[in-house]
Amino acid sequence: MNRFVTAVRALRAAAPHELLDALRRVLAEQYAARSVELLMADYGLTVLQPVSVLPHTLEPVSVHNSPAGRAFGAQEPFVTDAPDNCAEVHLPVTVRGDRQGVLSVVLPAGEHLRDRLDELAEIAEALAHELVVAERDTDLYMQARRKDRLTLAAEMQWQLLPGRSSSRPEYELGAQLEPAYATFGDNYDWSVTADTLSLYVTNGMGEGAEASLLTNLAINALRNARRAGLPLAEQACLADQAIYAHYQGRRYLSVLMFDFELATGRVRAVDAGSPRLLRLRDGRVERIDFEAQLPLGMFEETDYVIQEFQVRPGDRLVSVSDGVYGVHSPGGEAYGDSALTRAVHSTRLLPAAEVPRAVLRELTGHRGRSAPDDDALVVCLDWHGR
């Protein structure tokens, strides 16, 4: 039987918490693997955490300066020498553009190794699919992702998110929240059909679990309306009513909503609050302004109006919350549009999935300290078109 088929069948037959053990067995039998380790990207995208039984005993490795981190960043297999005439192969574990982590396999070195890289890369991708399914039934992989304990609010927010990156022929998406282990209100959501990409960037209000509860109500109200097939403006209206009915205007939420037509690049947008949008086109960064409309839930029965613009192949869109553009340096200088423009331009050569983290690193340098005062959210969309 084909080795790849054997590996996939072993993964599908394994219990959710035993995926790695099943893969170790089949890779040892079919590929003479000496060792197999699965490293999951942590919530802050700073380290790769080895999957092991609690309490974890294996040391994490850096995303930025390790062989496994190189495979994770480049999204390509990376091979290093290992003792006893072996090689260590680091393979990205990614599903539909969502970067889960890295599979590291020690194999006998030799000419046949290069021939097996494609098979091993496909096995790592199959593992990524199984991990997404397995997380419905086990906490093992979510526990492995965290190098610190999540606050309750952060736990609620991460469970609400669709992923941290996504890709299709028409686009690539990346997003990141900070502080990763203590975020509370900012959020993002996306969904794609055969014709449309829906993208929402949310600027939360308040602190702690109360902020997370408000965002959960808003996101689920928007999803409920979207899944009912309602157009963008009506989605905003129904979410606005749901939030107002619960909070009576005491709490509200800002959101920037988009529907991208995959075939044409035509974009419908509703700007209900404060998230900002910048576009990088032909090397030039410019801010895209919309007619400001009221945040969701501020007043009863607010009407929302759709605005339109066009994206072209090669465009990059970057949207941020006020926890990015409103940050001040120790000297009182606001991060603002000019610094954000420089950050978008300086990260222009990075893939969309890496841009949010890079922008947030620059923001930390401007802030002058690692601990932020507010949530910070960056979403990056690279548009390829059809």
Give structural notes:
- The protein has 386 residues and is an alpha+beta fold.
- The chain is 35% helix and 28% strand.
- The chain has eleven helices and 17 strands.
- The chain has helices at residues 3-13, 19-31, 67-74, 112-134, 140-145, 152-160, 208-227, 232-247, 322-325, 336-346, 355-367; strands at 35-41, 47-50, 61-62, 78-82, 86-95, 98-108, 165-168, 171-178, 187-192, 196-203, 254-261, 266-272, 276-281, 284-287, 307-310, 316-320, 376-383.
- A six-stranded antiparallel sheet has the order 3-2-1-6-5-4.
- A hairpin with a 3-residue loop joins strand 4 and strand 5 (86-95).
- The radius of gyration is 22 Å and the shape is globular.
- Keywords: Hydrolase.
Number of helices: 11
Give the proportion of residues in helices.
25-40%
Can you list the strand order of the major beta sheet? 3-2-1-6-5-4
Overall outline? globular
Largest sheet: 6 strands, antiparallel
Output the helix-strand order: HHEEEHEEEHHHEEEEHHEEEEEEHHHE
Strand fraction equals 25-35%
* Count of extended strands: 17
Provide mean pLDDT, rounded.
Answer: 92
Radius of gyration: 22 Å
End-to-end distance: 38 Å
Low-confidence stretches: none
What structural class do helix, strand and pairing data support? Answer: alpha+beta
